[in-house]
Design goal:
Elements lengths: L1 H9 L3 H5 L6 E2 L5 E6 L3 E6 L2 H13 L23 H18 L10 H14 L4 H8 L4 H25 L13 H9 L2
Helix pairs in contact: 1-3, 1-5, 5-7, 6-7
């Protein structure tokens, strides 16, 4: 659960998540995580307080709070080795399948680690966050890459509006207010 929460909240690429070490976390407010991404670049991504609280519990349960644990991988497999991309993908699929049992309509047929990144980007965009900030959070080198999310969001809005027009009853050729005598009298009096 902690891994999936961090995957979403940070918008990390799967390899960036796999590479996180304990030292890369800052859980004091303002909480954040340092991610090592494409182009061998580091970026700092802010984290929500509930994510920081969950990570604090996770670190405490695994006794990773001391300075001797700073270089330990944050997420490990059963053998104690750093969790790799395949291990993260397996975990995402496992929890998606479990969630599908309780609410199948809400869980897409295919859930990959990248779905979390995509969802975070779309949610930021839909919340009105500027594309420049989204670019920085996602670690895109160019805002043109981030603009893809804005186009996707515009397409979704357009399709939703088209759906409204396509589902309008054929008898709705004249708006119903035109048959309201009071409204029509008021409009005629405006002339």
């Amino acid at each position: 659960m902690t891994m999936l929460t961090l995957l979403y909240d940070s918008g990390a690429r799967v390899q960036e998540l796999a590479d996180i070490r304990v030292r890369d976390l800052r859980l004091d407010l303002p909480a954040g995580v340092n991610l090592f991404g494409k182009g061998s670049k580091w970026r700092h991504v802010p984290l929500m307080k509930p994510t920081a609280d969950l990570l604090q519990i996770y670190l405490d349960e695994r006794r990773l709070l001391g300075s001797e644990s700073a270089d330990y991988p944050l997420f490990t497999n059963h053998s104690g080795h750093k969790l790799n991309r395949a291990g993260i993908a397996y975990t995402v699929k496992k929890y998606a399948n479990a969630a599908r049992l309780t609410g199948p309509a809400h869980i897409p047929a295919i859930v990959t680690p990248h779905v979390f990144r995509h969802s975070k980007a779309m949610h930021l965009l839909q919340s009105g966050v500027d594309l420049i900030y989204i670019r920085d959070i996602l670690g895109h080198a160019d805002v043109k890459t981030t603009e893809i999310y804005a186009r996707i969001d515009s397409d979704a809005k357009r399709k939703a509006l088209e759906g409204v027009y396509l589902t309008a009853p054929p008898s709705a050729s004249r708006p119903s207010w035109t048959e309201d005598d009071v409204v029509m009298k008021m409009l005629r009096d405006l002339e």
